[in-house]
Design a protein that fits this description.
Blueprint (H helix, E strand, L loop, with lengths): L1 E3 L5 E6 L2 E6 L9 H15 L6 E6 L20
Parallel strand pairs: 3-4
Antiparallel strand pairs: 1-2, 2-3
Length: about 80
């Protein structure tokens, strides 16, 4: 079962006892502070699911995460 989160850049696919959380921000999967906060909240929510025994953090594309998004207004300097 695949579910979309509040952020379209993050999807969760749960199969049996495994949850795969995928980051998809082309081209290099740069992250912003708000995205990291949302990801942390999502992982905390998954942690509360007693049916999940393992979480895989993955990414779409070539780079897993090329670092912070320094160009976006909600990047590193964002609140």
């Amino acid at each position: 079962m695949t579910t979309t989160t509040e952020r379209p850049e993050i999807t969760v696919e749960k199969t049996g006892h495994i949850a795969v959380v995928t980051l998809d921000r082309p081209p290099n999967n740069h992250v912003s502070v708000p995205l990291m906060r949302d990801l942390a909240d999502l992982l905390e929510k998954i942690d509360g699911d007693d049916t999940v025994r393992a979480v895989v953090l993955a990414s779409a594309g070539k780079a897993f995460c090329a670092g912070a998004d320094l160009v976006a207004p909600d990047g590193v300097g964002g609140s």
